[in-house]
Design a protein that fits this description.
Layout lengths: L1 H24 L8 H5 L33 E6 L1 H4 L9 H16 L3 E6 L2 H25 L14 H21 L4 E7 L2 H4 L1 H16 L2 E7 L22 H11 L4 E6 L19 E2 L20 H13 L3 E6 L9 H6 L6 E3 L9 H17 L2 H17 L1 H15 L5 H7 L3 H17 L7 E8 L2 E9 L2 E6 L5 H12 L2 E6 L4 H15 L8 E3 L6 H4 L8 E5 L2 H10 L13 E5 L5 H13 L8 E7 L6 H12 L3 E4 L1 H5 L19 E7 L2 H11 L4 E5 L3 H10 L4 E4 L8 H4 L6 E3 L7 E3 L5 E8 L19 E3 L8
Parallel strand pairs: 1-2, 1-5, 2-4, 3-4, 5-7, 6-8, 11-12, 11-14, 12-13, 15-16, 15-19, 16-18, 17-18, 19-20
Antiparallel strand pairs: 7-8, 9-10, 9-24, 10-23, 21-22
């Protein structure tokens, strides 16, 4: 009875809401004005955005990133998506989430259509309820008592269930769409509606008129009268409407839609049955790839299986409609699966007619994995030879590299800020420094992979070793820094790691030539595939989901990039720092000449670097002293904009602009100055507002300096030295993949050592644990053994 009351309420809400909407928006007798309806927009917890939508139909989208331009979209909801697990009744929470996503897209100016299942399941629930109610009443009257006996429910015919469920299903949709000020309309069709020319025109005209009025058409096969599906009944070049998959494809092509989204209870297409050990989700499916797919059994409910979906998808693709098959039932993704697809995210299987010229990023990941393993088995001298050869290639091909870089700079002019342009720029001196750094890495790589760290004699003839090994496959994402590519590649080669590189499009020409040279160097020992440059239009967020292919992500770029990657990474550790808020504390016992020189170098030498000074802490006793005046004069000469901290501003009659936040990374010729009363207050300030990157004390008092060095909890802490020394090359590491503020594994400038992990090697002679029990014959020794010494300089 509860369900029947709920249905009645939904029907009532539908009529009340539609009537109120019609009279308040259009007026009782006003003609329909599509522009009036289109202005009705609502907000939800999914971000509201407006996108330019204009596209001539006729050719499907070639890549996922283009899906954001889709204007007309059909969403097909399979029976497994709409119905509950018991196949009796609707999954109301899931349905509400789908309606919300469709409403958001509709309110962006898109034209949304739904092809929905669920009438049979909804009707089955209603009819079962009616049968139970009827049987219980008859039984009570017949027996003269209220006690109910066990009752058998007859098998319900699908057509009858559909007839009983269609009105309730539509009322439910209307009630949900009304919450977003959107009207929906039901259209029931059969195969004849497409085969009969007049009926097809009528259907087409009705759908276009509904879309023109900003109404969401909800289409379903008329299962109350539809005949059973006939095998192999497709007409020449036309798909027969046997189920909602074929209906959605036929509707999508008929209405010249840009995108068809097919939601089912599986993630998409797999190269082997889903759930098997070797099953891999196919990200992009191309016509002719059917041989690579093994079709399993059909869905637990509904008429079509995955084979029917693929057939319908390929037919729609041939008709100019892009298709994505995805999971609409998974609780973690169903709340945003439709909007994610439209945003171009890697969800489900995307059908495309255009095969990329090169390998997919998944294939590149596999090549980097196998290439990295081969690289790790090379002799240290061979890895060093590859890096030396790469250093030679950088100098030998200097003109080609600089020419490619010039193209990048010309294309970036006016689009990038000056600090980013400076990062993008390469020069002869930069290439020479790169070559020197690579040769340092080559030398250090002689004793990296396979180095014994610890030896233990566990028992007689049972020895344990801990040795260094590569981490696996690294994904390094970098912005506007083409010099980063050979640095990171050399470190990966030295440590035996496979490498995926994703550079910014602003450095595309430079990255391409540098990657070609890197693979040329790798080729001398047959490991060319170990370093891969991702040239496909993969979004960074999609790369961060490849947790089965990537072992560590290292972002090199803005703090926003690092934060975005840390947020997007799913199950993959991220090495890096989100901010470079570096401090310098000038103590009351600081040298006048040293202080000014250190501040200038830390702030002005390269203000865009992550190790540049951002906050200058001045001891209160230094205010209005020659030391303070000299620092301020120098900053003026260097055209550094000063932001006053709260305490500093309170000491000044006419202060510079007060800082908006003490936790700011400017990345430019801007500096925050604040006053502190003691070294302890300086330390407290750093811990509160710093980013644990690099912090410096300037003082002549050794005791104060040591107190600062021991108590500041940052990756790099210096005494009387510029913050700019926080760098792998300046540390003598040869180069760095980045600076880490993490407390696990590696911290500070991460060079070769930070790209290694360890494994344990145990060598025995028929040893079993039972021999070491209380009554066993062997005893544990656990003796530390000498470790072989390194032979490298």
């Amino acid at each position: 009875m509860y369900l029947l009351n709920e249905t009645v309420y939904c029907v009532f809400l539908f009529f009340f809401s539609f009537s109120s909407f019609f009279h308040s928006t259009l007026g009782a007798t006003d003609p329909v004005q599509p522009s009036t309806i289109r202005n009705v927009r609502s907000w939800s917890n999914i971000p509201f955005i407006t996108v330019p939508l204009s596209r001539a139909h006729g050719k499907s989208f070639a890549h996922r990133s283009e899906l954001k331009h889709a204007k007309r979209i059909v969403v097909k909801l399979g029976s497994a998506v709409v119905t509950r697990g018991d196949e009796c009744g609707l999954a109301l929470g899931r349905l509400a989430s789908i309606v919300e996503q469709v409403s958001v897209l509709q309110n962006q100016g898109r034209e949304m259509m739904l092809v929905t299942s669920g009438a049979v399941a909804f009707g089955k629930q209603r009819l079962r309820h009616e049968i139970l109610l009827s049987q219980s009443v008859r039984q009570a009257l017949h027996s003269g008592q209220n006690q109910l006996k066990e009752m058998a429910i007859p098998v319900l015919e699908a057509r009858a269930c559909a007839a009983a469920g269609q009105s309730g299903l539509m009322a439910l949709y209307e009630a949900m769409f009304t919450q977003y000020s959107i009207c929906a309309a039901q259209i029931l069709v059969t195969n004849l509606d497409f085969h009969d020319e007049q009926k097809r025109r009528n259907l087409n005209g009705t759908l276009h008129e509904l879309l023109r009025m900003n109404i969401v058409p909800i289409v379903n096969t008329n299962d109350a009268v539809v005949p059973p599906a006939e095998p192999n009944s497709d007409l020449q070049g036309v798909i027969s409407v046997k189920d909602n998959d074929s209906l959605a494809a036929r509707l999508a092509v008929e209405m010249k839609t840009d995108l068809l989204i097919v939601l089912s209870d599986v993630e998409g297409l797999f190269d082997s049955p889903p759930g098997s050990d070797d099953a891999k989700l196919i990200d992009t499916f191309y016509p002719g790839d059917q041989q690579s797919v093994t079709f399993g059994t059909k869905s637990r409910v509904g008429m079509g299986g995955m084979e029917a979906k693929v057939k319908a998808a390929l037919w729609a693709l041939q008709g100019g409609t892009s298709v994505v098959i995805a999971n609409g039932t998974h609780p973690k993704v169903s709340g945003h699966v439709i909007t994610d697809i439209v945003e171009g995210k890697k969800v489900g299987t995307f059908f495309s007619e255009v095969k990329p010229a090169g390998p997919t990023v998944e294939q590149q990941g596999e090549m980097a994995r196998s290439g990295g393993r081969m690289l790790a088995t090379l002799e240290p001298e061979q890895r060093a030879e590859i890096i030396h050869h790469l250093a030679d290639l950088l100098t030998d091909h200097r003109d080609e590299i600089l020419s490619a870089n010039k193209k990048d700079l010309e294309e970036a002019e006016g689009r990038l800020a000056p600090p980013l342009l400076k990062r993008l720029s390469l020069s002869t001196s930069k290439l020479n420094s790169l070559a020197i750094g690579l040769r340092q890495i080559a030398t250090s790589s002689q004793d990296s992979v396979g180095r014994v760290l610890r030896r233990i004699r566990v028992a007689k003839n049972l020895e344990l070793e801990q040795v260094t090994v590569p981490i696996g496959v690294l994904l390094v994402i970098f912005e506007s820094r083409p010099d980063c590519l050979p640095q990171v590649a050399a470190l990966a080669i030295a440590s035996g790691n496979g490498l995926l590189l994703k550079g910014g499009k602003e450095a595309a020409h430079s990255n391409r030539i540098l990657h070609v040279l890197t693979q040329e160097a790798l080729s001398i020992h047959g490991v060319k595939e170990a370093v891969q440059l991702v040239n496909t239009r993969e979004e960074v967020e999609d790369l961060c989901r490849l947790d089965k292919m990537i072992d560590l992500i290292i972002p090199r770029g803005s703090s926003q990039l690092v934060r975005d990657i840390q947020k997007a990474a799913k199950g993959i550790p991220v090495m890096g720092h989100s901010e470079g808020i570096c401090h310098m504390y000038v103590d009351s016992e600081a040298s006048v000449d040293k202080a000014s020189r250190l501040v200038r170098d830390s702030k002005c030498e390269y203000p865009a670097a992550c190790n540049a000074l951002e906050t200058l802490l001045i001891h209160r006793d230094l205010l209005r002293t020659p030391l303070f005046d000299q620092i301020i004069d120098m900053l003026r000469v260097e055209q550094v904009k000063i932001h006053a901290g709260p305490k500093f501003a309170s000491y000044l009659t006419f202060s510079p602009s007060e800082v908006k936040s003490l936790r700011t990374e400017y990345g430019d010729l801007e500096l925050c100055i604040e006053v502190v009363d003691s070294v302890q207050e300086a330390i407290d300030h750093i811990h509160k507002y710093g980013s644990s990157h690099t912090d410096v004390i300037v003082t002549e008092n050794e005791k104060t300096a040591e107190f600062f060095l021991q108590h500041v909890d940052s990756a790099c802490v210096f005494w009387n030295a510029s913050t700019r020394f926080s760098d792998g090359y300046r540390f003598g590491l040869g180069a760095e993949v980045g600076i880490s503020t993490s407390r696990i594994h590696a911290r500070g400038p991460v060079g070769l050592e930070g790209l290694l992990t360890t494994k344990w090697l145990l060598r025995g002679q028929d040893h079993v644990v039972s021999d070491f029990s209380e009554h066993g014959t062997l005893k544990y020794l656990h003796e530390n053994l000498p470790v072989p010494q390194s032979h490298t300089n």
